[in-house]
Amino acid sequence: MHGLGRLLAAVALAAPLAPVSAAHAAPLSTRIHDIQGAAHVSRLNGAKVARVPGVVTALTANGFWMQDPRPDRSEATSEGVFVFTRTRPEALVGDAVRVDGKVREFRPGGASSGGLTRTEIDATATAVDAHGTPLPPPAVLGPRGRRAPGSVVDRGQGDVERGGAFDPRHDAIDFYESLEGMRVRIDDAVAAGPSRDGELPVLPAWGAGAQARTARGGILFRDADPNPERIILDDALAPLPGMNVGDRLPGANHGILDYSYGDYKLLLTATPRRTAGAITRETTTRPQRPGELAVATAGLDGLNPDAPAARFDAVAHDVVDGLRSPDLIAIGGLGDNSGPEDDGTVADDQTVAQLITAISAAGGPAYDWRSVYPRDNSDGGRKGANDRVGFLFRTDRGLAFVDRPSLSGPVPDDPPARPDPAVTSVRAVPRGGTAGLTLSPGRIAPGDAAWAGTRKALAGELTWRGRRLIVIANQWFPRTGDDEPLFGRRQPPSQPTEWRRDAQARTVATFVNSVRRVDAKAQVIVAGDLNDRGTSVPVQTLAQSAGLTDLPAELRAGDRYTAVTAGNSEDLDHIMLSASLNRRRHQFDVVHRSAEFADRADERDPTVVRIDMSGK
Q1: What is the 3-state secondary structure (H, E, C) of 153-186?
Q2: Is residue 216 pLDDT above 90, yes or no?
Q3: Main-chain phi, psi angles of 144, to 5 degrees
Q4: Distance CA 273, CA 268 (A)
Q5: In the Cβ-directed half-sphere of 476, how many Cα atoms lie within 13 Å?
Q6: In whole angstroms, what is the distance from residue 182 CA to residue 58 CA?
């Protein structure tokens, strides 16, 4: 949904807060800064106001923004406000107006949303006093103007709408609130993330003063620094150009600071001019050598036969050019044969055939595929899509998938009933002097509540030139609307989906430990989309509980990210090695080909590790 649609939806889903008491009635001469106040909720909420003066600064289909040309002396009180007219307003930009109506606080997304409210005047009358009035000067954001706090969203605890200190100098959530509805200017912006869904995260002044930049021009999310200096541009009032990380918007760009769906957003009033940055799609440093095993991760974001051929080509070139045709890829998000059509299809053979054909056409080797068909609509994701995890593996370099039950050999006249692999748990058992699996591929505890409504971890038994390996492909529970937003009313925001991932981490760790009990030296690889940073509780739980080493931590901080979320670069995809493999020489690489680019449907960068398997 793009800007104007989101804006209208915000009004449609908004929930008003309780009105003010009689003690907080509007003064006889009310100005915008009296309405906004130094708080997240107006003390005049619910009060009637009359002849509130302002100059119209921007229009939308159901209202307009206006700003007081005579501000008070406090930077804590905003001088702008949205006027809700329900229908297209008759006032024009530059009109000096006086507005009658009622002050209201609207919460985009409804009363249950964890987001903040937007202060509005629900207009009953608008009088135009003059046309062509000069617009109030904008507030300049950045080092040459008002600078947002660089790391702190809010120092307090609890509900920011229910009191507490309001400190725009030190708390970013208060800083942006003090500019809500006002004209704002940013100079020389640089993209911190790609443009997606009508939004673009940027840093002003070419990123001057921003900390923890990535090697390619983004900015890293750190546990103690979520980078509140990022500014989200929105296309509600003017189209935005397609942008990649590091692309630039030179000169001055003006807009209105608004709030919707968990973030403050700058609605530019004119389409900015873009200049391209310098980043290109990466290729891993080298292909694997004859004695090395290359294992990779890749997210396909629901790839299915209805996807354009260009999407299959892009994924194929990621494999062949970006990853240099690794031996094994832990895949997440491969869709069924009918894509999002909810027709009961769970088979994926057509999707797989198109993908393998595209890899071959791109100059790659022959690959094969293993997975487990999910039960229809039981694994989360988009209804009908039945995205799943699985293994894509080469058949020409000594890697062999151990199929259990076997896919070859004569079929008996009266074959025994086979348990449904979608709901049957795989177990570790002794095989050939080391650990093997009862099912390969097999799901890890698929009936465990940790996997309810989400993709189940998949274990596979493979051999590399006679050496047995256990590889586990993952796509853990995503961060969803159940998590409260960074700029939400409750601080610090609650992240309930992390508890789901922590439960999944414990389930996978329990399985890995069951493999180690069979053989303490078993060679185990855990790979895929864990949907959490390396410092998070779930990732740390898995690594520490199962004796695994998380390979992204071996990279310098500025290069280990695999995703860019609202301008924050994060390491959400991982490869972990058991001690027996970690002791071997290995080289890990994140290959930046997707997350920073606006033209990619899959939003995760692939990763690859090359492990020297020569010697004992």
Answers
A1: CCCCCEEHHHCCCCCCCCCHHHHHHCCCCCEEEE
A2: yes
A3: -95, 15
A4: 12
A5: 29
A6: 10
User: Quick one: tokens of 526?
Assistant: 């855990």
Spacing of C-alpha 576 from chain mean position: 22
pTM of the model: 0.93
Domains of the chain: 3-130 (2.40.50.140), 139-268 (2.40.50), 292-409+417-612 (3.60.10.10)
Give the residue carrying structure tokens 């509540």: 449
Can you tell me the distance from the alpha carbon of 442 to that of 422, in angstroms, rounded to the nearest whole number?
A: 8
What is residue 1's predicted lDDT score, i.e. its pLDDT? 54
Strand partners, 55: 67, 96
Determine the 3-state secondary structure of 120 from DSSP.
Answer: strand
d(CA 192, CA 200): 8
Q: Is 384 left (phi over 0), alpha (psi -120 to 50) or beta?
A: left
Q: Do residues 84 and 121 lie in contact, with contact meaning Cβ atoms separated by under 8 Å?
A: yes
Nearest of 125, 126, 102, 124 to residue 16 by alpha carbon? 102
Residue in 201, 78, 214 with CA at minimum distance from that of residue 146: 78
Six-digit token string for 127? 């009088």
Say if residues 392 and 328 touch (Cβ distance below 8 Å): yes
**Whole-number mean pLDDT of the chain?**
93
Residue the block writes with tokens 């809010």: 154
Cα distance between residue 382 and residue 302, in whole Å: 9
- 154-174 per-position pLDDT tens digit: 998 899 999 889 999 999 999
